Amino acid sequence: MACAEQPTKSVVLVPVEERNAPTTIKNKPASMHKETSKEVNKQQEPVIIALLEDADKYSGQGQSAKAAATLERALRIEPRNALLWHRLAVVRFQQQQWQQTIAMARKSIALAGNNRNLKSDNWGLIAKAYDKLGDTRKANEARNKQTNQS
Questions:
Q1: Contact of 63 with 55, CB cutoff 8 Å
Q2: DSSP for residue 41
């Protein structure tokens, strides 16, 4: 008796980024990015929206390392996304990494184009980081730039 060939199934592997990725923004937890949460919209890639939501969840649970890793993953997908750089700056601030906060916020400013709200939020974050570093002069300079963006 000959062995019957088993039909082979076609296995489709779906990347994590594409699994159940939302197409719209759900309610966001309150966090340091009050104004910039409005910047995420339906025009963002669904995977970026999903990663931002995951990062917000981790950040809200006090898991800043996971939040940072999630945002870094999103930045590998969209390295010129000013909002992602801002969110990573916020996480670095939560981690008390003041120099990293400043660097990430400056990168966000450089990519923000005409987005005055995002630039203002970044300058405010930079001012707070300089305060933590004890550099009052640079903190005040950042606050002046924040005021000029508003």
A1: no
A2: -
Query: Hey, what are 144's tokens?
Result: 């002046």
Structure tokens at 54: 């995951």
pLDDT in tens, 11-51: 334 344 444 433 333 333 334 444 444 445 446 689 999 99
The CATH architecture to which 38-149 belongs is: Alpha Horseshoe (1.25)
| C-beta neighbour count of 122 within 10 angstroms | 31
Residue type, 88: L
Q: Is residue 62 within 8 Å of residue 31, measured between CB atoms?
A: no
Distance CA 126, CA 110 (A): 13
Closest CA relative to residue 67, chosen from 83, 40, 43, 91: 91
| CA-wise closest residue to 125 among 113, 51, 114, 149 | 149
- Enumerate the domain spans of the chain: 38-149
Q: pTM for the complete prediction?
A: 0.73
